[in-house]
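Exercise: predict the fold of this chain.
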Amino acid sequence: MAWPLPPATRRLVGLLFLTAGFMLLMGVGLRLYVVYDTYQRLGTDALAAQQLVLYMIMLVAALMMLRYGWRERRGNDTVD
């Protein structure tokens, strides 16, 4: 595949990354609310460290997808 992508393709790729990042961010946010509610009702016995670490990794991935999508839509260099 040729690099850099044509402008129309870059905008489409950026839009897809923004959409996926936003949906993942919403899903993780809702899931963290459920974990917080469970913590409030059942205490610390209901929490698992692996679960929270996984959610934090997913949160970082969502933010990175949003950043990449935004930079791709604006035509900035995305190679870091």
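Check your answer against the key: Helices lie at 7-42, 49-74.
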